[in-house]
Design a protein that fits this description.
The chain is of the alpha/beta class. It contains seven helices and five strands, in the order βαβααβαβααβα. The protein has helices spanning 18-31, 42-45, 57-76, 90-104, 118-124, 129-134, 165-178, and strands spanning 7-11, 38-41, 81-84, 109-115, 156-159. The protein has a five-stranded parallel sheet with strand order 2-3-1-4-5. Helix 1 (18-31) crosses helix 7 (165-178) and helix 3 packs parallel to helix 4. The longest helix has 20 residues, at 57-76. The protein is globular, with a radius of gyration of 16 Å. The protein binds adenosine-5'-diphosphate (ADP). Residues 12, 14-21, 84, 124, 126, 160, 163-165, 168 line the site of adenosine-5'-diphosphate.
Length: 191
């Protein structure tokens, strides 16, 4: 059983690929025999843990602090967790990093910058939100009329406009292997 907790924190614009990569990584970890993984998706969190919060800087920071609190609890108890949240503000991401590393040790927080030009995100428009933001139906939309502060020193910087989800996921797995957070070899499920 895997006992080392860690947080893989995906940050990036809406439509950059955070949910896609967290789900794919979840799946790949399961094939490695790491089955106690939890995914915290920003969109889902906002319907439960952060229900009622809006998109002002203050509410966004509160949302991220709550997710960070859960992430550190999971990390403390050896549960690998994958967070997919825009988390546009650098300062609160750093706060969360400190919270997680305090309980999980240095290297237990892996910040993944899911980098994709806004034009490409907007073209993908997975949830139709960019079109609505451009029509003025959604205010404070990250990248349009709200800021996004890219990480300055992320553990991983992935360009999702020029590589496939599988290639991006492999880079994360390589990092986790190199840090000894996951085993080298795949374990067949059921064996
Ligand atoms: P987010 O969670 O960041 O809002 P989503 O994962 O919902 O973004 O959407 C990203 C979209 O981009 C998906 O349709 C996905 O298939 C596509 N995509 C293309 N290349 C990549 C990549 N390398 N990584 C992740 N997603 C990608």
């Amino acid at each position: 059983m895997n006992r080392k907790g860690f947080t893989v924190w995906f940050t990036g614009l809406s439509g950059s690929g955070k949910t896609t990569l967290s789900n794919l990584l979840h799946h790949r970890l399961q094939t490695l025999g790491i089955t106690n993984v939890e995914v915290l998706d920003g969109d889902v969190v906002r319907t439960h843990l952060s229900r009622g919060l809006g998109f002002s800087k203050q509410d966004r920071d509160t949302n991220i602090r709550r997710i960070g609190w859960v992430a550190q609890l999971l990390t403390k108890h050896g549960v690998p967790n994958l967070v997919a949240a825009i988390s546009p503000y650098r300062e609160v991401r750093e706060e969360v990093r400190e919270m997680v590393e305090r309980v999980g040790g240095k290297g237990s927080f892996i910040e993944v910058f899911v980098d994709c030009p806004i034009e490409v995100c907007e073209k993908r428009d997975v949830k139709g939100l960019y079109a609505r933001a451009r029509r003025g139906e959604i205010k404070n939309f990250t990248g349009i009329d709200d800021p996004y502060e890219p990480p300055l020193n992320p553990e991983l910087h992935l360009r999702t406009d020029s590589s496939t989800p599988e290639e991006c996921t492999e880079k994360i797995l390589q990092h986790l292997r190199a840090k000894g957070l996951i085993p080298e070899v795949e374990v067949k499920t059921g064996s």
